[in-house]
Every structure is written in structure tokens, then in C-alpha cells.
Amino acid sequence: MIDSIIFDFGDVFINLDKPATFRELEKLGVREIPPVLIEYHDRYEKGLISTPDFLAQVMEILPGYEAKDLVKAWNAILQDLPEERIEFLKAIRKDGKYRCFLLSNTNELHIQSCFQELGSDVMTEFFGLFDKVYLSHEIKMNKPDPDIFLKVISEQGLQPERTLFIDDTLAHIESAKLVGLQTWHLQVGTEDITHLKSKL
Fold first, then answer.
1. What's the Cα-to-Cα distance from 126 to each of 15, 75, 148, 149, 190, rounded to whole Å?
2. Residue whose C-alpha is closest to residue 169's, from 152, 187, 155, 182
């Protein structure tokens, strides 16, 4: 019997347009993403480098572009946060049967953009619906590292066999299974988090 739920954020609650950043970079004239940029992204997502340092490194790799244009491209992936998903989460919390946690691979620029574009009130209310929010850049680790799941399990005193982890990325799901979590590999476009009750 499930008594706790760990939710991903991107494409589970907030819609993403994953190719959008690359499309925006192409508009700026960037035809190829240097492999070192992927490394910087991973470090930034883990909070191992600051936003100013990350942008400075990107501008060094991609000279000739202004920071504001790179930030716009970087945040282009972020779309809307459907109201029905927030209302569904509110209903889950009101039901009182489940502890709920958010576990997201993200970064400071993306979270700042969410608060600016979706609204501070909306994001504050949304984050407040969880027992705790775990953001990769704040906790200095990211999925699919099994240690990130072990951190949540340990800190919250969860029983893995009674905890459901929901994510749209298969590698994250497979890693969660390794530590004993129950999982739902949500299929974006054909499934929605509002279908959760059929999985419990």
C-alpha cells in the first residue's frame, strides 16, 4: 500500500518543450553544441557553479552572444503549469492519505523563470503543497544518481516499497527501482499526472 509519493516536476506538472533551447540557439546562429557545454550544464544543475559563473562559461564557449539572449534560449524549454494539475495535487493533499515530495533536476535560472513567468504566488502555493521540495541545484546532486533517492528516503523516513516515484525519464525510473521504490514511468502526451489514482 502506497503512503508516500515522490513527483518529478518537468513534464509531470510543468509542461516542457525540450527541443526549444536548441531551436533558440540555432536562431542565434549556434549550429552545434560543444560537448563541454553538456558538462557545464550537469555541474550547474548540481549547484556546483553559480549562475554568473555558468553564464560566463557559456559566453566563453559561445563568444559573441549577450547573456540575456542566452538566458532566453536557456529558459525556452519552460512552458505552462496547467491549473488542473495544481487542483489535482490540492485534492490529493486534502485527502490526507499520502505524504508528497517534489524531486526535480533543475537549476537557479529555470526556477527564477518559473517564479517570474508563472507568477510568484502560483509557484509559492505550488511548492507549498509538498511536504518538502528537493531541487538538484540546492541539494548538490541529481537524478539518476541513486544517492539522490536514498537522501529523500533517509531524510523523510520513507519505506521504499510503500513509496511511489513518478517521472517521465526512463533512466530516472530505473535508478529509483534499484533502491526499491515503486515507480510510474509517465508517458508524456498519452498520460497525465491527473491519472494518478489509477496507479495507486
1. 14, 19, 22, 22, 24
2. 187
CATH class of the domain comprising 4-15+81-199:
alpha beta
Angstrom CA distances, 113 to 53, 72, 116, stand at: 18, 9, 5
| Domain locations along the chain | 4-15+81-199, 20-75
Question: pLDDT, tens digit, for every residue of 23-57?
Answer: 999 988 888 888 888 899 999 999 999 999 999 99
CA gyration radius, the chain = 17
Cα–Cα nearest to 132, from 6, 45, 1, 44: 6
C-alpha cell at position 168: 517521465
Phi/psi at 24 (nearest 5 deg)? -70, -40
CB 99 within 8 A of CB 131: yes
Per DSSP, the three-state class of 172 is helix
Indicate the pTM of the whole model.
0.95
pLDDT in tens, 150-187: 999 999 999 999 999 999 999 999 999 999 999 999 99
Backbone φ and ψ for 179, nearest 5 degrees, come out as: -100, 10
Distance separating the N- and C-terminal Cα atoms of the chain: 8
Q: pLDDT value at position 51?
A: 97
Indicate the residue type of 5.
I
